[in-house]
Amino acid sequence: MKLVYSGKTKDVFALEDGNYLLKFKDDVTGTDGVFDPGANTVGLTLEGAGRAGLRLTKFFFEALGQKGIPTHYIDANPEAATMTVKPATVFGKGLEVICRYRAVGSFLRRYGMYAAEGQSLDAFVEVTLKDDDREDPPITKDALAMLGLLSAEEYEVLKALTQQIGNIVKEELAKKNIELYDIKFEFGRIGADKQIALIDEISGGNMRAFKDGKYIEPLVLEKLMLEG
Ligand SMILES: Nc1ncnc2c1ncn2[C@@H]1O[C@H](COP(=O)(O)OP(=O)(O)O)[C@@H](O)[C@H]1O
Ligand SMILES: [Mg+2]
Per residue in 76-115, pLDDT tens? Predict the structure, then answer.
């Protein structure tokens, strides 16, 4: 097994059969010990966060697979906090795609002149570049095409998949009386036909979720979703 990438919250290994193994770490993004799904730094280490993140990721990717949504998922080992996936090529050096249901976080920081905090958004999709040095700048459909990262047709596929997946996660959370405010995904091209598919993870660290108006920490979210 060869380490191909060590990220903020996961290590990526190449398996002999050509697939990848994602190892979920106990590191969580944030600043100064406070969790923030939008942060570009590891803010804190929480015992059990890796295993909890993997378990929730497994739950969502299996649900998506049952609905025929293309993803990189093959299988998962909850005890080891690892997941076997199909290798993908990302767009440029990677994009993040955000689906928003309420105006919070960076959306509110940018558009606060016109948006009220917590205002409803209808599965609003935004794409950002994974570029730590430039603080993950948002990028438009036109800029993605112009810079050769994503064609206009591929953008529409990406957007539709994002809304479909966001809505599935939102519905699963709603079953536990939890409200999804926003969620962040990664996509890549998989296989010989370069199909656009969901990659990476779907865990508490990728979303903002609230219950009875109160924010739910990733580890608590994973408990609420997977127990009882
Ligand atoms: N199926 C896949 N193929 C290739 N790369 C992947 C796949 N799934 C996830 N990745 C990449 O692996 C890395 C996972 O590690 P992570 O700690 O989340 O990294 P980061 O610090 O970039 O967020 C990410 O860069 C993600 O884009
Ligand atoms: Mg990541």
Answer: 999 999 999 999 999 999 999 999 999 999 999 999 999 9
- 94 CA distance to ligand 1 centroid (A)? 9
Helix (H) or strand (E) run with residue 75 in it? strand 73-77
Report the residue among 5, 17, 61, 131 best suited for mutation to probe ligand 1: largest number of ligand atoms under 8 A from its CB.
5
Cα 224 to averaged position of ligand 2 atoms, centre (Å): 22
Residues of 10-42 as b/e, b for ≥16 C-beta within 10 angstroms? bebbeeeeeebbbbbbbbbbbeeeebbbbbbeb
CA distance 85 to 88: 9
- Cβ proximity of 88 and 70 under 8 Å: no
CA-wise closest residue to 58 among 94, 89, 22, 91: 22
pTM of this structure:
0.96
C-beta of residue 186 within 8 angstroms of C-beta of residue 96: yes
Q: Is 95 in the pocket of ligand 1 (CB under 6 A)?
A: no
Number of residues in the chain: 228
